[in-house]
Amino acid sequence: MTSHGHPGGTLSPPLSGGPGQGLSTSTTPTAASGDSGLSPLRPVDPEAVKEKLNKVLADRESFEKSAKASFKQYDKDGKKALNFVAVKELIARLCENLHLPPVDDGTLYKIFCKYDFSSDGSLQFEEFRRLYYQLLCRIREKYYPTKSVTVSRQGFVRRTSLSRRQIDITSILRFTKKLGQGSFGEVHLVTEISTGLQRVCKIINRARSQVPMEQIEEEIRVMKELDHPHIIRIFETYDDYKNMYILMDFCEGGELLKRMASDATKGRAWTEEDVALVMQQLLSALFYMHSKRVVHKDLKPENILFADSASSSQGQIKLIDFGLAEMFKGSPQNGLGGSGEEGEGWDEEDMSHNAAGTALYMAPEVFERNFNHKCDIWSAGVVFYLLMTGSLPFRGKTIEEVRKAASCSPVPLDTPQAAIFSKRTAARSLLLSMLEKDFKKRPSARECLDHAFFQQARQATAGTSEALPPAIMSSIQSYMRQSNLKNALVNLMAHQLDMNVGQMREISKIFTSLDTDKSGTLSRDELSEGLARAGLQPWDIVRIVQAMDVDDNKSISYTEFVAACWTWEERELNVLWSAFCKMDLDGDGAVSVDEFIQALTGMERSDQRLLRGRSEEVRKMVKEIDKNGNGRIEWDEFVDFLRRDTATAPAHPQQPSQAPGQHQTMTATRHGHATVSPTPYAHPHHATAPAPGHQQPALQPQVVFPNQQAVRPSSRGMPIPPRG
After folding, report:
1. Contacts of range 394-400, beta carbons closer than 8 Å, 24 or more positions apart
2. Residue 52 half-sphere exposure, CB side, CA atoms within 13 Å?
3. Distance (Å, rounded) from C-alpha 464 to C-alpha 462?
4. Matching CATH topology for 31-143 and 464-567?
5. Three-class SS of residue 625?
6. Who's near 380: CB < 8 A, 6+ residues apart?
7. Which residues are CB-neighbours of 600 under 8 A, at least 6 positions away?
8. 383 strand-pairing partners
9. 3-state class percentages of the chain: helix first, strand second, coil last, to nearest 5
10. Is the separation of the CB atoms in 238 and 170 below 8 Å?
11. Are 156 and 86 contacting, i.e. CB atoms less than 8 angstroms apart?
């Protein structure tokens, strides 16, 4: 790097304290040549800056050394005093190096005069020292804050014992339609009575379920760990003496093959590009899961749903049914942006012997009970073949015949249905690599996503991130200015949102376009680059990135991104109510300090001692919301806090004042607008739900594949009930 043109040439950088760690007001880099400082950061590394600021401000010796170096650097005439011009130049250089907005002369002059205690028009070292300390504190507070609370999505998934609270599930959920049943139990479409939000409820009868409860518990644990636009979300679980109830996303679009059939009946056969977009989403979900060391083990068309019912292959898919999924030991690979690879962290010892799945989609090594995450790539390859041809590559009348075909037979490319692969060399190349029988030679999900076959799919979504819609830009900038506490609560609300509304689809597309490595998370670099392309200033980008990362794990999850981009409307008051109910664990109409901690951190009360000195900090947070000073957060206080200084937050409903002792009950109309009526508080709200309905058996659809007329798909493996 070259000098930025300061007449002083190469100067000793302030804030020194270790190679590669300093902040600099100097004009040329010195760290590279062995100096103890750091060159001007291009681009800024927020973590390095934050670490150095914390060190300098916490250690008196480091601060004194930094202040003296800065003072000496700009005391050019050696008079041991800095005039206004010198201070202005110093601060301008610091702002430039850290990509901070410039300070206007009027504001800077007021600050200068404030610390010019002798009123002689210059700052002696002791005067400058005080100004410098306050300046660094202000930079840290505004641009590199230490989060008062970190939250994660796992803490938002609450588990409630109905027996202990002596309430029935029908006082919480209205059962509207039975969607299917299987060896585990039943699946119903339900509506949350208190919020009007539509969910899918999986009911597991402990006595009758053919699936061990340990397996169900593992499914819940896995789903709580996953936060990806193409993976089903879990919201809450309930238990009573008889059943377990798991609330999940409702995917209106139904199963993958049925969507193809629906499009076919409307005269629209899927193209190769349509298949590429579906496979890209599927492999992105696998890339993310494998980076979390989660293997699905039962990937098949029945477990791939479309989120919405619009008749288009361009819709968003969701991977479901983690009942057979397995979490491998080891550390997840967080923040894989750019150069990340889900193969990193996997080695030859990371093998499973717990074979499971549907035989027609199982990899050869699964039959041998010695496999790893690459078994999901094989299953995805079988799905790819099915989508392109309308038939399965490896079949048989018995499981043994299927095993032999998968293990020994070549991929059938000489059939009439597979003729398309002779004309599509990229598709053929990808297919053969995914169905490589030696899993050690099989590509990872990341390697599949880099294949030339997906070039057209990438081009179809390219450029989405160049310009953010004004509403989303406004929401992000508002989110940037909010407190860490408010952002944590907004994340809790975002977890409850309906994924099928237009705003969610728009945000998901933007997230996907920013996720250049298709890992399912945004690295800080990916987000920063996308925001820069959208025209945001560098100093705002630093604040936005820090604000979005509410769990402070150096990457941005899907829910974190949605929370920052969402434009809240009054009709979404039911979502706010749902978030409040999630925190009100005992249902008494207010949130205690213990409940507040548990809701945001996921810590049980018995574990909250681990917070140690932070407990007082949490009490201060509660006090910030608790305006009547009773040590608890009530509904009106919760709403008012989220409305305060936030133009995009939900508004209070315009209703007559409540009678004493009454609370507002939220329901949703058919059109999605919240209605509010004062009723005596009951939590959850008691209501009589209709008996669960029954679904008529559906006819098997015809499907039109990319290269042929309508055909019926071949054997679909073990039957799985539809999920929506």
Report:
1. 394/360, 395/360, 395/714, 395/715, 399/359
2. 26
3. 6
4. yes
5. helix
6. 279, 282, 283, 286, 299, 434, 445, 448
7. 149, 151, 155, 488, 489, 492, 583
8. none
9. 45, 10, 45
10. no
11. no
Contact (CB, 8 A) for 333 and 302: no
Q: Was 202 annotated as part of a binding site?
A: yes
Instruction: Name the class of domain 31-143.
Output: mainly alpha
Determine the Cα angle at 129 with ends 538 and 141, to 5°.
Answer: 35
* Domain boundary assignment for the chain: 31-143, 270-304+330-460, 464-567
Q: What's the one-letter identity of residue 577?
A: W
Burial of 70 (0-12, 13-18, 19+ CB in 10 A): buried
Classified as helix, coil or strand, 87 is helix
Its sign, for the CA torsion 428, 432, 435, 441, is negative
Determine the Cα–Cα distance for residues 296 and 302; give it in Å rounded to an integer: 13
Do residues 56 and 66 lie in contact, with contact meaning Cβ atoms separated by under 8 Å?
A: yes
pTM: 0.76
Tell me if the bond preceding 43 is cis, omega within 30° of 0: yes
Specify the amino acid at residue 93. Answer: R
Distance between CA 347 and CA 650 in Å, rounded? 48
> Helix, strand or coil for residue 216?
helix
How far apart are alpha carbons 701 and 440 in whole angstroms? Answer: 37
Rg, C-alpha atoms of the chain: 29
Spatial distance between the Cα atoms of 562 and 564, rounded to a whole number of angstroms: 5
Q: How far is CA 432 from the centre of its chain?
A: 32
**Tens digits of per-residue pLDDT, 340-395?**
444 455 666 677 788 888 999 999 999 999 889 999 999 999 999 999 998 999 99
Q: Could you tell me the CATH superfamily of domain 464-567?
A: EF-hand (1.10.238.10)
Question: Which tokens in the block code for residue 524?
Answer: 């800080």
**Maximal C-alpha separation, the chain:** 96
Distances (CA, A) of 365 to 358, 383, 698, 716: 14, 18, 35, 21
289 vs 44, more confident: 289
Closest to 41 in 3D by CA, of 13, 80, 11, 77: 13
Active site residues: 298
Tell me if 404 sits within 8 A of 362, measured CB to CB. no
Residue pLDDT, tens place only, 214-261: 888 888 988 988 999 999 999 999 999 899 999 999 998 889 988 888
| Closest by CA position to 427, among listed 407, 457, 395, 391 | 457
Q: What is the pLDDT of residues 243-253, one digit of tens each?
A: 999 999 999 88
Q: Are 385 and 392 in contact (CB under 8 A)?
A: yes
Alpha-carbon distances of 233 from 74, 259, 373, 473, 520, rounded to whole Å: 56, 21, 21, 26, 14
231, 295, 321, 454 from 281: Cα distances, Å: 10, 16, 16, 11
In 3D, which of 504, 502, 525 has the Cα closest to residue 515? 525
- What is the fold of 270-304+330-460? Transferase(Phosphotransferase); domain 1 (1.10.510)
For residues 395 and 714, is the Cβ–Cβ distance under 8 A? yes
Beta bridge partners of 304: 319
Query: How far is Cα 639 from Cα 644, in angstroms, rounded to an integer?
Result: 9
